[in-house]
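Tutorial, part two.
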Amino acid sequence: SIVMGRWVFSNSPFGYKVDRATKKLVIDEETSKIYRMIVDWYLTGEYSTNDICWELNKRKILSPKGGSWSPHVILNILKNEVYLGHIVHNRTKVNPITKKREQIPPNQWKRVMNSHPALLTEDEHTRILEILKRNRTKTGKNNTNTLSGLIKCYSCNKTLPIMKDVEGNDVIGKCYNCNKCR
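Running the prediction step on this input gives:
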């Protein structure tokens, strides 16, 4: 089925839907506009994955799973080759000894080219990958909040997480240990 260009995976990529008759991906007009907006923002160079995430959440646009956007989701969407019109499969394999899933190197992935309409050109995809390579972000450890480690749970004395809300304000999260205080 994959070789014939049919979509056999459980979820369709953001911006597409599956045509039940042909089992191929077709462009979803509503979400494809949001996808193009994400790509255009990123290609300007003025928006990072974090900025795009905040902007989409501020506009109350739902993520592919119906919740809030995260930079990781934006990053996966930007890197995905499915938007070039290709189906990529055989990315992982299960180790028969450890029973764990292992990554296969990208040069060994199997691709079915031009299996559905593309939302992205090769040139745009190459530019996105160049920007991603150039803008390697720091890990979360380098972006420490000034209150980190200082705010403790009143019940179990564990450190409470500090996150940002949609407007970018600091929010103290619930205790992961006892789940009591907020």
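Residues 18 and 25 are 5 Å apart (CA to CA). In part three we will examine how such features are distributed along the chain.
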